[in-house]
Amino acid sequence: MTVTSGSLRSRTDLCTAIETELTGLMGKRASVATTYGPDFTRLWAIAGENVLGGKFVRPLLLMETYDALYQGSSGQRETAISIAASIELLHYAFLLHDDVIDGDLVRRGHPNLIGSLLAEAGEIPRPDGALHWAQTGGILMGDMLLAATHQSFARVDLPHELRLRLLDLLEHTINETVAGEQLDVGLGDGIVAPELETILMMCGYKTATYTFELPLRAAAALAGADFAVENALATAGRHLGLAFQLQDDLLSTFGDPQRHGKDPYSDLREGKQTAIIAHARSTASWPDIEPFFGRPELNGAEADHVRRQLTDCGAEKFVQSLIAEQLQAFNDVLASAESQVPPNARNVLVDLAGQLEGRQS
Amino acid sequence: MTVTSGSLRSRTDLCTAIETELTGLMGKRASVATTYGPDFTRLWAIAGENVLGGKFVRPLLLMETYDALYQGSSGQRETAISIAASIELLHYAFLLHDDVIDGDLVRRGHPNLIGSLLAEAGEIPRPDGALHWAQTGGILMGDMLLAATHQSFARVDLPHELRLRLLDLLEHTINETVAGEQLDVGLGDGIVAPELETILMMCGYKTATYTFELPLRAAAALAGADFAVENALATAGRHLGLAFQLQDDLLSTFGDPQRHGKDPYSDLREGKQTAIIAHARSTASWPDIEPFFGRPELNGAEADHVRRQLTDCGAEKFVQSLIAEQLQAFNDVLASAESQVPPNARNVLVDLAGQLEGRQS
């Protein structure tokens, strides 16, 4: 996601600015937390480390788009950085609640907050007490970061209308992400029928909205861009977001766990209803896959067998074709808005799309 | 909590105004929810019924205090109602996450949101899938209501300073409530040592702050009251809040489940570390109580035995004396602020304190 031309600021400067803002947002709260004893303090310390260890995909997208769109000389850049950083907090809040819901203890090859709390709790008398304690930490930290995100949006010193516009965006984003999460869980729990259409809708809601649409729309609003520009970027961004999510599913199932850093085979073990599975279910190979799907004790050899079946039945290829479709739609939207969207802003997204190729993590 | 004098508006009018505001806040979102399918729509429908079925303790405290403090002729009354209603949403968000954390399915004698979702899910293939689905609904609805609370606070059309003051209050409240919840869970899971002092601190953080301090401080800020008045009310309110929480513990353990509407003996079954238990632990009766404490399969006869032991060892009386102490401190604070706090505002709290006597639910 390197901006290739026209931006006055390098990627490194942007990362530093976002990191400084996040350090401030988390540091202020971590310092207040010490009033409430060692366990509350520890919660903030772990969360702070994890937040600052992120890749800042969403804040960078917002800032690079803002810098590409903003035409004036001073503008709302400081506010944009504060909103960008708070979107990273929102991302982490969603991850925490997602990890609680999925029972995950690892993210990107390292213990997540829940895994860290569990390891530190050690042996305690009540059965499952340590896991309960750790998952409670995940719920509560997610709540506090969801609150922190709103605090940043609420405190911006902007004209009333623009502030309301950002608050609308945040509200829409949370609604849609939560609806996507509920669909995802409903699919996994067997409450919602695993139709391909439902699965694709879920991917869009759960990930594309907050990862692409929110930063792009916020950047456009803060830069004072026309609504047509905002809409073209957001629509293109949604297609790209769906492509990324579908590729995530491919990586989780077929990729190298050493590189993508997730629990290996966790999607298969959890019985996650992905587009891969939706396709496989419509093929003659399904009776050979189904007994292994959603089996918590799935071992490596069984998982390898399922992966081969998923490739052989054409599910891997099918999802690759879905990704290609989304990229085509992405290109079409950007092409048809060529006269409206400034080249630098287009380049931010085109560079991002370029990262899909050869992605391993 | 009837205002006995000076208020221009009756309790019924206040309830109607709060109900109307809550209907608007929930209705707008329930209507957006229909875009995302039947399960998301259902989540909002159940939450809407539950929110509107509440007793509005916190919003009423805010509005009665506001009306008692406000001296002018127009003021921020509409904003006060919006903030009051959003504090009810915050309360419900906390309850939802608390119920998820405690594994509770019943509240006030009726299925809570999780219990309703569980009952409606019916039989599904995945073991524990229905409970997982229902608890996920509790986490997600809590998130959305936490977001909705912040949206109300963020959108108020007030002078910048006053808006920031309310946002500070909300931030402080959430921090303290979450710290209290974490302490409570740490006590239950055996992570935190069950000292009486810790338990009392936990009660203050977890309940008194958002139930008493937040509505009282928000009312004072909105009414433009002196900070000395705000502080006296908030300090008195914290003592009262602690008294209510201690009485809640007494009711849960010794009260009639038909009247208080909770899972009977759930505190004993869950091994909840209350002031009652902290005292009992220091007596010679503890070896006879301990084997039953925190036993999930505790039956009615065993629970009756434990309750008798808790009375006989003096734990019930001890907690009654703690309540009396808090009420004394409450009266002392109000008395020493007599020249500053208007009589009507004092009466709101005094009437509320009166409800402690003979409380059954």
Describe what you observe in this structure.
The structure is a homodimer of 361-residue chains. Helices cover 74% and strands 1% of the residues of chain A. Chain A contains 16 helices and two strands. Chain A has a two-stranded antiparallel ribbon. In chain A, helix 3 packs across helix 8, helix 7 packs antiparallel against helix 8 (196-223) and helix 9 (227-254) packs parallel to helix 16. The longest helix of chain A is centred in the middle third of the chain and has 30 residues, at 160-189. Mean pLDDT of chain A is 92; it is low at 1-8. The interface between A and B is large, with 58 and 58 residues.
Short summary:
Chain A has helices spanning 11-33, 38-52, 57-69, 77-102, 113-121, 129-155, 160-189, 196-223, 227-254, 257-260, 266-270, 275-281, 286-289, 300-312, 315-336, 343-354; strands at residues 106-107, 110-111. Chain A has 361 residues and is mainly α.
Write the layout of secondary structure elements.
The structure is a homodimer of 361-residue chains.
Chain A: H1 11-33, H2 38-52, H3 57-69, H4 77-102, E1 106-107, E2 110-111, H5 113-121, H6 129-155, H7 160-189, H8 196-223, H9 227-254, H10 257-260, H11 266-270, H12 275-281, H13 286-289, H14 300-312, H15 315-336, H16 343-354
Antiparallel strand pairs in A: 1-2
GO molecular function (chains A, B): metal ion binding; prenyltransferase activity
Keywords (chains A, B): Magnesium, Metal-binding, Transferase
Cofactor (chains A, B): Mg(2+)
